[in-house]
Amino acid sequence: MRTFQLDRPGDLAEAVRILAEDEGARVIAGGTDLVTLMRDGIQQPSRVLDLRDLGLTEIEWQPDGGVRIGALCPNAVDDRRLAAEYPLVVAALRAGASPQIRNMATFGGNILQQTRCAYYRLPEFACNRRDPGTGCAALRGDSAKQAIFGVSDTCNAVHPSDLAVALSALEAEVLVHGPAGARRIPIREFHPLPGDTPHRVSALRDGELVTGIELPAAGRGRVSNYVKFRDRASFAFALASAAVVIERAGTVVLGARIALGGVAPKPWRAEHAERALVGNRLDEDSIAAASAAAVRGATPRKDNEYKVELVRRVVRRALSELE
Ligand code: SF4
C-alpha cells in the first residue's frame, strides 16, 4: 500500500480546502469501500480525509415534513419515524449489506460507492473507469452482470447501491458543499452515465463533498416497496432490483415512480413503466403493462439477456406486493 497522509479536518471549510488543493485526496467515512480499494491498490490517495469530527450524523425533520439525513449517518440507522414514513429507505438499506457493514457504512458513502465490476478491481485488466483511456475488458469478456440500460462503449458496469435506487424513486436531493458554497443536486443528476468520462462516479465538482441527503415529504396515499433479485439469499449485489413509489386516490394511481438497480450505470428510472400506471387502477392488467414497459430501451448482450426477464419480474413483484 502506498503511504498517505491522514487528515481529520475540524470543520467543513478545512475539508473543502484540502480536497480543492489536492486532487489525490479522498474522503473516508465508514471505509467499507475505500479501504478495500486501497488494500488492493486500485485507489492510491495521497491524503485521506477522516470526516468524523464534522458531525453530519443527524436526522433532521423539516417544517414541510421532509427529512434531512446527514452524510455520515450510519446505514444501520434506527429511527422509528424514518422507518414509518420512508420504509423504502430502510428496506433498501437492509437489502444492501449485513448488519456489521451497515454499522460502518454511511449514507454519503453508500451513494458514492465504486462499481463492483470484477475487472475494475483487477489491475491486470483494462478498465476505463480505473485508468481512463485503457479500454474496457468487460466488453470482450464476461458481461453477465453488466448493464442493459445506459450502456456505452467506454463502460457498462452497473451501480451497486440499493439505497441510491430507493432515493431515486423518492426523488431525493443530495446536499453538497464545496469551494463555491453549498448546493443541492437532484439524485437523478447525481450519478452520470459513463459517456467519455467513465472514471467520474458522481456529479461532485472538484473540492466538493456530500453533506447530506434530503427527502421530500411523504404524500398522502403513498405506498412503496423494494424488491431485489440476487445470486444468493444472503448479502449480494443486485442482479436486478426495483424501488416503486405509488401515490393513489382510492384505487387510481395518481403518481408512480419506479427505479431499477443492478441494470444500469446509475439508478435507472423506468419512465415507460411509470406512464403505464398513472391514471389507471393498480391491478393485474396495469401491472402487466408496466412490467412489460419497464424493459423498453434495454440493450442486452448475449451474457446478460436474462436481465430483461428479471426486470419484468422484479417490477411485477414489487408492484404486486403493494397493499
Ligand atoms: Fe472498467 Fe467499466 Fe469496463 Fe468494468 S465495464 S472493465 S468498470 S470500464
UniProtKB/TrEMBL annotation:
The keyword Oxidoreductase applies. Coiled coil: none annotated. It comes from the Bacteria. One of its GO terms (molecular function) is oxidoreductase activity. Residues 1-220 form the FAD-binding PCMH-type domain. InterPro entries: CO_DH_flav_C, CO_DH_flav_C_dom_sf, Diverse_Substr_Oxidored, FAD-bd_PCMH, FAD-bd_PCMH-like_sf, FAD-bd_PCMH_sub1, FAD-bd_PCMH_sub2, Mopterin_DH_FAD-bd. Keywords: Oxidoreductase. The keyword Oxidoreductase applies. SMART domains: CO_deh_flav_C. It holds the Pfam family CO_deh_flav_C. PANTHER family: OXIDOREDUCTASE, XANTHINE DEHYDROGENASE SUBUNIT C-RELATED. This is Xanthine dehydrogenase YagS FAD-binding subunit. It comes from Tamaricihabitans halophyticus.
